[in-house]
Design goal:
The protein is α/β, with parallel strands linked by helices and 247 residues long. Helix content is 20%, strand content 29%. The strands form 2 sheets. Strands 1, 2, 3, 7, 8, 9, 10, 11, 12 and 13 form a 10-stranded mixed sheet that branches. α2 packs across α3. The radius of gyration is 17 Å and the shape is globular. The two termini are 31 Å apart.
Length: 247
Amino acid sequence: MTQAACPPAPAVDASAMRASADAPPVEWRVGAGLVAYEEAVAFMEARAAAIAAGEARECVWLLEHPPIYTAGSSAKAHDLLDARFPVHRTGRGGQFTYHGPGQRVAYVMLDLTRRRRDVRALVCALESWIIATLADFGVTGERRAARVGVWVERPDKPKGPLSETAEDKIAAIGIRLRQWVSFHGVALNVAPDLTHFSGIAPCGVREAHLGVTSLADLGVTADMQTVDASLRNNFEAIFGPVDTTSV
């Protein structure tokens, strides 16, 4: 079961995915260096199975990948424009996206049986998490009904052919569920090389007035540790306590 985007507003209340008061804290992991994609997927699949079996706690893993393209379950071959980096086919929801240094990937392994068996609520809660984190840095992130991810308006860029305001994606979302345990998650552009996105049509988006951006591109100077602290605080506000002993 997969899901990549929150349906049109009004969004599901993000608190719908908060853990019960007696639930153990979510394990909070931060990867060191660049983590190979195959290693990350193997970990997520094993951890999701262990969570479903009641043998492990829920887990969020923050990391960075070496430059790669990943293709979700809805990816179309013509959206791979230039395979300059390795391409990984994956079962998450969504289409093509890029991962690389300077992008904070957050893999989210949560037990929806213990929270709420509602894919829409989970995706909307993930969006709310990213939007709240961006707000900490003075950036207004928004949902779009017809487009996946979190977007920011760019009044400094040319409008679309129908006078649509230019917008850039700053975070992608794509998840998969197995036995009602989620894995994969979100990717927030902190300071990646944005030219690397030119090898794909990110999430199938080709319109000239729709692009990609990052905190650095928006003029926000923030190191990854500062972003991680904001992600942790906002995750707890929406999903419940985390165990940061491994941070």
